[in-house]
Amino acid sequence: MSGAADILEQWFPQDDLVLQQLRRQVQRVQLPSGQAVFRRGDACRNYLVVIRGSVRVQALSAGGREVVLYRVTDGQSCVITTSCLISEESYPAEGITDEETDALVIPQVVFNEALGYSEAFRRFVFANQGQRLSDLIQRVEDVAFGRVDARLAKHLVDRCGNQPGSVSATHQQLASELGTAREVVSRQLKVFEKEGLIAVHRGAVEVIRPDALTRVWEQVH
Amino acid sequence: MSGAADILEQWFPQDDLVLQQLRRQVQRVQLPSGQAVFRRGDACRNYLVVIRGSVRVQALSAGGREVVLYRVTDGQSCVITTSCLISEESYPAEGITDEETDALVIPQVVFNEALGYSEAFRRFVFANQGQRLSDLIQRVEDVAFGRVDARLAKHLVDRCGNQPGSVSATHQQLASELGTAREVVSRQLKVFEKEGLIAVHRGAVEVIRPDALTRVWEQVH
DNA sequence: GCCGTTATGTGATTTTGTCACTGCAGAGCC
DNA sequence: GGCTCTGCAGTGACAAAATCACATAACGGC
């Protein structure tokens, strides 16, 4: 709750009449988990800022395979939306909530006004753009150059916060995160399990030796 | 030459005193072919707009492999620069001129001012952002899902304008465009040659039957 | 317990990527 | 003409990954 108030206060401070005017047009929504926020080809009408939760932005291949491009989480905005809003293109990917998510909905007109009026708002918007762009470039590098074993190891370590614990995800979901195929993930997990680094359960992976997984990642660079 | 004047006039019209002031701080540079415009890790100080020519933005792997992420050509700006400028991050990739290139150099401060002052300028900046973002997403999809034969075929057809002709590029360069390895390109070109679709020469590929190449692309979707 | 759904396991095959070379063409030089 | 250097291209062997086509296995209702 405080998150939303903070963010609103930051961009639309009480002591500025123009911004107060705009602030009134900003709405707040709560989206359930697994809800499609936008789909490929949709037109953009609003600027979305996630207050709490997580939106997964992913591309879908003709053959039904998926790659997660990036995630938009607490206090971040969806770049795609930003760019599409102004250039009036349609979404090139789809966004789906990973969990229950609260977001601010800023109408296109208000977004445009605020962008011209507030430097703080501009900074926020561009900072987000830059971050997402870096994410995407990283993703291209990973998929083009990276080995699956290393990337899987790293992903698991990241998800368990670098200490023993359980990561709940199906092989299919892990495959989407890495931009590979489910079978490849299944097989690789089996290899890690045989080496005692993890234990695989249905719908979850138990990380036993995060340190060793980190080493797998580092060995391949 | 007219290009530069047009672009300047569009964003900084003569009849606006504020913009005229900013306009004076915009400089113009000419870069030779093959010149590095920025490197990974560099800090951003200026906003670049290409007037004539082409800048290739690419990622470099640890093992020396390259992927071309996108190109910035006539009348476009480099998004990376945009975002880094405001969020003050460093470049996540490198940019190299493909050919002799003229560009406008807009200092960070001027960029910021113009962004607040001119809606036309904002539209331009964001339109570019959106385009590049789409390019990048497409690239992730291609590399993650696409088959090399199809992508190579498509690339050749694109480069020769869908009609018989010669595409001058080394196998290494083609590999970078597609995010794959040189050997793979060599082998695939050989296959196409055997089928009579192309003829390979040193440093160039002669496209003989673009229609058939297009079909290769379409068959795989 | 039975059934339908979803998740996972596996073998066979093809496509890519990597490594370690060889061969080859052209530029510049004597 | 013959050299050497250098960057480009060809190739075989092998490893990794993707794809296809299934077989199982676990769970959730009922």
Tell me what you see in this structure.
Two copies of one chain form a homodimer. With 221 residues, chain A is an alpha+beta fold. Helix content of chain A is 48%, strand content 24%. Chain A is built from nine helices and ten strands. In chain A, helix 6 (148-159) packs antiparallel against helix 9 (210-220). The longest helix of chain A is centred in the middle third of the chain and has 27 residues, at 119-145. The structure holds a DNA duplex (30 and 30 nucleotides).
Features:
homodimer, 221 residues, alpha+beta, Jelly Rolls, Arc Repressor Mutant, subunit A, 2 domains, four-stranded antiparallel beta sheet, three-stranded antiparallel beta sheet, DNA-binding
Query: Radius of gyration of chain A, Cα only, in angstroms?
Result: 20 Å
Identify the CATH homologous superfamily of the largest domain in chain A: Jelly Rolls
Distance between the termini of chain A: 41 Å
Tell me which CATH architecture of the largest domain in chain A applies here.
Sandwich
Biggest interface reads: A-B, 46 and 45 residues
Please give the count of helices of chain A: 9
**Percent of residues in β-strands of chain A:** 15-25%
Relative helix content of chain A: 40-55%
| CATH C-level name of the largest domain in chain A | Mainly Beta
Can you tell me the CATH topology of the largest domain in chain A? Jelly Rolls
Quaternary structure state of the chains depicted: homodimer
| Overall pLDDT level of chain A | 89
Could you state the order of secondary-structure elements of chain A as H and E? HHEEEEEHEEHHHEHHEEH
How many strand elements of chain A?
Answer: 10
Spatial shape of chain A: elongated
Low-pLDDT segments of chain A: none
- Placed side by side, the strands forming the largest sheet of chain A appear as 2-6-4-5
Largest sheet of chain A: 4 strands, antiparallel
- Count of individual domains of chain A: 2
- The SS-based structural class of chain A is alpha+beta
